[in-house]
Every structure is written in structure tokens, then in C-alpha cells.
Amino acid sequence: MVHGERVLLVRSSSPHINPPLWWLPGGGIDFAESPEETLLREFREETGLSIKDPVLIDVASDVRRRPNGDRIHTVRVIYSVTLDGGELRDEAEGTTDQVQWFALRELDDVNVADYARRTIQRSLAK
Q1: Residue 15, φ and ψ in degrees, nearest 5
Q2: 18, 38, 53, 117: which could join 29 in a potential S-S bond, CB 3.0 to 4.6 Å?
Q3: What's the number of domains the chain is made of?
């Protein structure tokens, strides 16, 4: 989520990734859940913040290897959103363990997931 000159990112809780990897809030779709419902739920779980007015901006697909060697194929449905309240807090016992606002100028020094970096760059180009 890009907001002014800042971006909100969450950090992977995997101890196998060094330096820690940061990405955009979001997550897996539960059975019978729409992508928009998933976004609202996952955003709140990972950040403590509520959002509204999701607008689809991209669908991206990537294949990568996990630290254990398994291949994973991810389809990412990416939205722009509007903040709607809540208090920033870290997720407990999830796939992420920290949430943080970063100044856009700091991102060159942060290990940001490729898809997230591309999404941020595209949103700034508009």
C-alpha cells in the first residue's frame, strides 16, 4: 500500500530468509471467499488496519523456489485500497511477523519481494 511518500510492508516470519523479506499485505484465499474478502481479512490480520474500496490494479503470476527447494506458483491479485481505521500492529503467529511504514526513498536498502517492488514502481509511475 503506497500512501503519500510511504509504503506499508509486512515482513516474512521465515527464519530461513536473511536478510528478512518484505512484501505487500495480503494472503491466501480461503474456500468460498472472494479475492476482495480475502484482501480485507488478510490486511487486517497482518497489519491491524481496516481498508475499503479495493480497486483491481494488476494480476501477476510467478514461480519460485522455497528455502526447502520446493517450487511454488503464486497468482497475485493486487488492489489499491483506502485506509479505513484501525491501529497498526504486528501479526502474531502468522506468515508475517512485523508491519512497518517505509519512506519510498528507503526501499533501495530493504529486501523487498520482486512482485512488490514492481507493483510499487508501477503505482508511482501513474
Answers
A1: -75, -10
A2: 38
A3: 1
